[in-house]
Amino acid sequence: MKDKKEHKEILADLEEHLREKAKELSNTGEITSKSIQDAIEHMGTPKAIAKEYKQRGTPHVYITKEMWPLYLRVLTIVFAIIILLNVIAMIVSIFFENPSFGTIIANLVSGIQLGLLGSFAVISIIFVVLSMEGYFPEDFKSKKELKKEKILMEKARAEGYPVSKRTGKPLKPFIKPLEEIIGGGIGLIVGIFFMTQPIFVGLLDPLFSLIIRIIGVFLTIESALDISRGIIGNYKPSTHQLIHGITIILKFAVIPFIIILALNPQIFPWFNYDEFSGMWINEGVSVEFYELLRNLMIFIAIIAGLTSIEDIYRIIKIKNYK
């Protein structure tokens, strides 16, 4: 409890309560030294009294309801940093150590697992203690920050941003429609290109061609969903959440096909132009590049899975707009 005004109010409340108790315990109805002593003993130890005044906030799974959003936000940020650092470490190991597929996955999973569990334990303990001590999120902000936040809130209200039903605070748009439409449009073009494969017709390995077509289908659907989100705009939050949920499924559905590519580097094309026949010839990738292609596909598969974290975050974020 950092607010001086709040401290004064608590002290005044304690003093008033002490006087009333002392008067009640006095035989004469007047406050005496003995009745004050009796009142103090009746109220309990200073620690017990202080504990009562630290019970700020609404209990919510050991962490108060007021601290819960901050707790989730800190967890999300820390988890994202841990995953990012492990991915960077994986990329470095791929290019400098050239480990096997099993080693890459094992190191990535163990690194992320240990990091997430450790950070979860530490952050949870910290927030449980803060909740027990009666802290609110605003207690960690300076007067300057609170003033700035107030100005931003007034500006947001003036500009007509939606207001959260849970917090009562104005919310900025959760989507930039134009960006979604442009990004979705680019993805749509790439997806259609993968599906139709208009160049090098008949030159690709049948398995490689089939997998690329399937990936193209998933990419086309995902891009179409992005465009639809852009068209919907900052409305119908439940629809946006549903679309993000479908997108997560699509991203994970692609991963097995990328893994198939990783396990079959020999099907990757490598074209050379034959001047004698005047045609392009698919000679296939040289054996020396097999390991590089495997690692590259593994990296792409992992990135595809990790990007779903952004969709999960957006689903959680959009809850505030309901």
Structural commentary:
- The protein has 322 residues and is mainly α.
- Among the domains are: 1-53, no CATH class; 173-321, no CATH class.
- 69% of the residues lie in helices and 2% in strands.
- It contains 10 helices and 2 strands.
- The chain has a two-stranded antiparallel ribbon.
- Strand 1 (271-274) and strand 2 (279-282) form a beta hairpin.
- Helix 9 packs antiparallel against helix 10 (290-318).
- The radius of gyration is 31 Å and the shape is elongated.
- The model has no long low-confidence stretch (mean pLDDT 79).
Which SSEs are present, and which pair or pack?
Elements: H1 4-25, H2 33-43, H3 46-53, H4 68-96, H5 101-132, H6 143-158, H7 177-196, H8 206-232, H9 237-263, E1 271-274, E2 279-282, H10 290-318
Antiparallel strand pairs: 1-2
Helix pairs in contact: 1-2, 4-5, 4-10, 7-8, 8-9, 9-10
Element pattern in H and E: HHHHHHHHHEEH
Task: Catalogue the unreliable spans.
Answer: none
Share of β-strand residues: under 5%
The Rg value, from CA coordinates, equals 31 Å
N-C termini distance: 32 Å
Question: How many beta-strand segments?
Answer: 2
Major sheet characteristics:
2 strands, antiparallel
Global morphology: elongated
* Structural category: mainly alpha
Determine the fraction of residues in helical runs and give it as a percent range.
55-70%
DSSP helical segment count: 10
